[in-house]
Amino acid sequence: MKLLRKVFSLRNENREYKVLWLFGIKFRFIRDSYITSCLKLLEYFRVPGFSPVSSLYGQMQSVVHTALLHQKSFSDLRYINVGKDVVLCATGPTLDYYSPIEGAVHIGVKDAFKIERIKFDYLFHHDVSGYKSKIIPGEFINYRAQDCIKFIGNSVPFLIGENPTANKIRFFNSANTLNYQIDYLPLPDYGSIIFPAFFFALWTKPKRIFIVGADCSTGHASGANVEHFSDVRYASGGWKLMKDFADKYYPDVELISINPVGLKGMFKDVYTNDYLNTEVL
Question: Could you give all domains of the chain from N- to C-terminal order, each with its CATH number?
């Protein structure tokens, strides 16, 4: 146990944070977050036939891997959008009614990049279930190769070419957790790629985040031909967690939902004329 304490210790720093010391490296976490639940290692000692040594090694390996990975992916993008507007685009049907906001930073998920009228600055992907080939298509990887950063989650299969850096590819891990320090902790998952993208948008500290196409419904935007479906209750529950987190840790970032369907009333609602003229609210 004395040797273990030298390589691993977890303690409360104050009411908000815990501190993890791992092989001489200090990590600072929001209390009751991923690291707290992940590192309840004593629970493994009560499972018959389960090796506490292997569980400890596995947990440490996961923590260190995510920390090293996210340092490369997110550290240099902290506060990069201060004072700017960010538009987060999912692939629901109401994306068809969105006209790009001039000067805004655009973040898309999955097949949103196929909407040609929008030039995306960042793309997120981590689910290949909608593709017959079961790999992320090359057109996603090659999209605006020198101008758009693509984030790929949880090591899903994809075509990357000879030089990943040429296409601005970065990687991330996600889990069903909410973490402030995404430069060394997982992004949230909760069953949708929109949530990692939303947390990244918060991380860049913009003035406003506009949420588009997150309809929590069936169907997809006309240009995004991969079928889109979200269970309204499940997706709305995830968005409620996102809102509560943003309200607490990013209270100065205004959250606006454009043409909301399943998210109606959750954020500030804004409707476009094109949508009002064709849809019944």
Answer: 2-72 (no CATH), 78-278 (3.90.1480)
Q: How confident is the model at residue 270 (pLDDT cuts 50, 70, 90)?
A: very high
For residue 166, the SS3 value is helix
Sign of CA dihedral 116, 120, 122, 124: negative
What is the SS3 assignment for 138? helix
Q: Answer for the pair 172, 67: CB distance below 8 angstroms, yes or no.
A: no
Angle CA 35–41–43, to nearest 5: 120
16 secondary structure, DSSP code: S
- 3-class SS string, 24-69: CEEEEEECCCHHHHHCCHHHHHHCCCCCHHHHHHHHHHHHHHHHHH
Which residue in 142, 147, 123 sits closest to 200, CA to CA?
123
Q: What gap in Å lies between CA 170 and CA 246, rounded to an integer?
A: 24
pTM above 0.70, yes or no: yes
**Which residue(s) pair with 208 in the sheet?**
85, 254
Q: What is the 3-state secondary structure (H, E, C) of 90-147?
A: CCCHHHHHCCCCCCCEEEEEHHHHHCCCCCCCEEEECCCCCCCCCCECHHHHCCCCCC
CA distances from 90 to 71, 93, 216 (A): 26, 9, 10
Give the 3-state secondary structure of residue 158: strand
Identify the band that residue 153 occupies on the pLDDT scale cut at 50, 70 and 90: confident
Tell me the pLDDT band of 44, cut-offs 50, 70 and 90.
very low
Q: State the angle between helix axes of 232-249 and 194-203 in degrees (0 to 180), rounded to the nearest 10.
A: 10
The predicted structure's pLDDT at residue 172: 92
